[in-house]
Amino acid sequence: MESAGKHGLMGMLHLSDGPRVESTRPWIGILAVILAAFISTLSSRLTNFGVADISGALGASFDERAWITTSFSAAQMLMGPLAVWLGMVFGPRRVLLAGSITFGFAELLLPICRELDGFLVLHFVAGLGSGTFVPLAIGVVVRNLPRNLWPLGISVYAMNLELSLNIAATLEGWHLDHGGWQWIFWQNLPLTLALIACVYFGIPREPIKQDVKGKGDYWGMAFAGLGFALLYAALDQGNRLDWTSSGLVAGLLLGGGLLIIAFIVHGYRNPDAFIDFGFLIQRNILPLLLLLIIARLLVLSSNFIVPQFLTQVAGFRPQQVGQILLWVALPQFLIGPCVGIVLRYIDARILMAVGMSLILVACLVASELTSAWSESEFIPSMLMQAVGQTMVLTSLIYYTVRHLNPVLVITFGAVIQTARLLGGELASALVQSYARISTQIHSNLLGVHVMTGDASVTERLSGLSHGPLVRFGVTDPSNSVRSVGLLANQVREQAQTLAYSDAFLLAAATAVLGIAIIAMLRSAPS
């Protein structure tokens, strides 16, 4: 593969990059990668689950609390391009230490701050600090570990993305029951201290590249960081504000889109751009980036659709939802290392295809759900999801890394950050909008068959009026009014159930597209 750093700043970085710097303590380096990926994803996920309790303590309204989660992830998006540049110039070790200290300090102060504005600022700062973790983690694996440990390091990295996404509900429930909402943030302090220790002892110090220090492509980084951050905010707020019906969402989409266009034009026209877009047209790169987005959407079939169904239809509390998500989280300790070992002997494309097929079958199984489903009915599909998602994500990242030169490995970390956040938010917005529209359609279709005076409807209303209500001792004449309310609730539940079934079918169709793309992948460069 032709080097992407042929000229300008990327070329200078490539020429001064020198040989790979392997760690003398590779297992501590892998542990640093574990903690970095775990903390970054877990923090965002925990805040999503605990936002109601956090906003209650801050006295924030429903509209105000929506910006609590947006501020953290938008800051991570903003930090991605800058983290790549800083990692190239100063080395991942220095940047990860600075990011860890910044993140830990902000997490310490967040529960103490009871003013919404100050809280949002601190949460944004925490996002900036953690925004260095994911972009640099892959660089740590490839540049600091022996080549024979790459598959294992990448599998552990992917494993922790899955683990942190699916264990958050359980942790949030435990914190609320035993310590209070403050521990959503304070739990990160010991994790951050452990990360600092692992980075300090497990990642070697690299010399600062004085020849390119101070010559950063600041316009390119600003265009990319601000553009992706604005697009993320628009996607995160779009469903709440009804998309283009909101001037704010329309402005965020327009501003973010224009900045991304400016970033692309700047990158193609400026010989000193911090990234060379030429690598996008090289072998397999665009299909692999598309697969990253598809993989992120498929993750939603386990950690979004299932919790939404269980809370809105089955009436589960968040703590109970966490129990079903553990069927995806806990097997990762076994699945992740096994996938890493198998990758050393089997083509990554085969593992990707097998994993995608497992996800396809899991989605088809879950699409048969009824309003009576609870935890036990989801277990078979969740276990298939656990295996399939880890196989796909691990194999995909490993196969993509094999296409990149040393400089682009670090840059690829920013691509993963973008795919993880922006791709995940795009997928979430798509699934939420799809489920909402599907619910409305099914509700209307079901309502057509619920007609006043129809014999079956009259019989159902009579059963509701003299059945459950009587058992609870309610026998007054208003029973008929309450029975209508119960029937309307049953129609709503059935409409939501059918909508979530459709969402699983959408995920299954996406998995089919993923299998087709994998089949078209050519062999990686030698």
Description of the molecule:
- The structure is a single chain.
- With 526 residues, this protein is an all-alpha fold.
- It folds into three domains: 22-205, Growth Hormone, Chain: A (Up-down Bundle), CATH 1.20.1250; 218-269; 284-402 and 404-444 and 487-526, MFS general substrate transporter like domains (Growth Hormone, Chain: A, Up-down Bundle).
- 78% of the residues lie in helices and 0% in strands.
- The protein has helices spanning 8-17, 26-58, 62-90, 92-109, 116-130, 133-144, 150-178, 183-186, 188-202, 218-241, 247-269, 285-303, 305-312, 318-329, 332-342, 348-366, 375-401, 406-448, 455-466, 468-471, 479-520.
- Helix 2 packs antiparallel against helix 3 (62-90).
- The longest helix has 43 residues, at 406-448.
- The relative contact order is 0.12.
- The model is unreliable at 1-19 (pLDDT under 50).
Radius of gyration: 25 Å
Gross geometry: globular
Give the H and E element order: HHHHHHHHHHHHHHHHHHHHH
List low-confidence stretches: 1-19
Instruction: Look at the structure and give the CATH class of the largest domain.
Output: Mainly Alpha
Helix/strand/pairing category: mainly alpha
Descriptors:
single chain; 526 residues; mainly alpha; Growth Hormone, Chain: A; 78% helix; disordered N terminus
